[in-house]
Amino acid sequence: xxxxxxxxxxxxxxxxxxxxxxAHYVSDEMFAEEREAVLFSSWAGLxxxxxxxxxxxxxxxxxxxxxxxxxxxxxxxxxxFQNTCRHRGMILxxxxxxxxxxxxxxxxxxxxxxxxxxxxxxxxxxxxxxVHETIRRAELGLIEIASxxxxxxxxVNVSGTxxxxxxxAAEAIRLWGDYEGRPVxxxxxxxxxxxxxxxxxxxxxxxxxxxxxxxxxxxxxxxxSRLEDHYNIEAPGAFSGQGTLVYxxxxxxxxxxxxxxxxxxxxxREGAEYIALYPNVLLGVHRDxxxxxxxxxxxKERTVEHVQIYYADDSVAGDxxxxxxxxxxxxxxxxxxxxxxxxxxxxxxxxxxxxxxxKFSPVMDGPTHCFHRWVAERVSAAS
Length: 383
What we know:
This protein has two domains: 53-145, Rieske [2Fe-2S] iron-sulphur domain (Rieske Iron-sulfur Protein, 3-layer Sandwich), CATH 2.102.10.10; 169-382, Naphthalene 1,2-dioxygenase Alpha Subunit, Chain A, domain 1. Helix content is 25%, strand content 26%. It is built from twelve helices and 18 strands. Strands 11, 12, 13, 14, 15, 16, 17 and 18 form an eight-stranded antiparallel beta sheet that branches. Strands 1-10-9-4-3-2-5 form a seven-stranded antiparallel beta sheet, with no helix packed on it. It has a three-stranded antiparallel beta sheet with strand order 6-7-8, with no helix packed on it. Helix 6 (201-209) packs antiparallel against helix 12.
């Protein structure tokens, strides 16, 4: 029996299904296989647009061992390239910085436009000869990786085989159509934080998808947004998560609240929703703020969670709101930190050689099974 034979049980209806086998959490072979079949072949979250706010800003990123370069071109468009010179394979940009109007290789000074075209090849034909008949610049531009920005998350499709993002994420875009075209304003430095967690990235998705754990893991949150106030969200093959009918905006001691998005339907007056957009982006929306979490797999048993909080109005990014932003970030940090022992505990549990993937509650675990099935389908198709 191969490790893929066990996926038949994952693909069954939730009432009969088992979860993903242990190998999907502890095997080097499976981690490498999922890199290609799950993360590289779909639209994965890479970084946030706010990390490269002005033209010329460039951010090198090691994405599961692949060197990528996210930058903002002269027209303000975010682009992602393989961070590799077409000459001798040198890394082009080592550190986050503004590179001006050109990408220059530090090895032999080949230069590329911010749109990827090869523009200069000094001495390539000999001293003082900057051209050569065999060096066809038009054929030697940087390798561009398909990218798209939605809700400030920079998504990439490394394989280039996924449908356009607007098609891939159509159901999620429709679900939150009330928020389309509205500002996504990043808070100050206090509104971004990370967790370095000893677990496989999929466990962070699985935990985020469901509300079943609220009474025991998030007792403070559950004291007002109770388990019974939540509902499942399932879009097979696309995303899954949870919603709540009880969201209470933060109120400062002086009575201030963050500005709301104007004109939202009644649903959002006290409601909020949280979805995992497969494979590795966790999103939440509320009447006055939102957040995004990009899960960065650093290994089969290590994940860095990059959290960014956003607001509905540009004014909230100013000094007048700094104290409230800091307190809001502290509250969210507390909630997200409460999940760390759970995902790390599940990771340890996956080393129990007799664990069979577990049994789902048909009522409470539907969103998690939805994600397991999506992973299993992609791995099965690739193999």
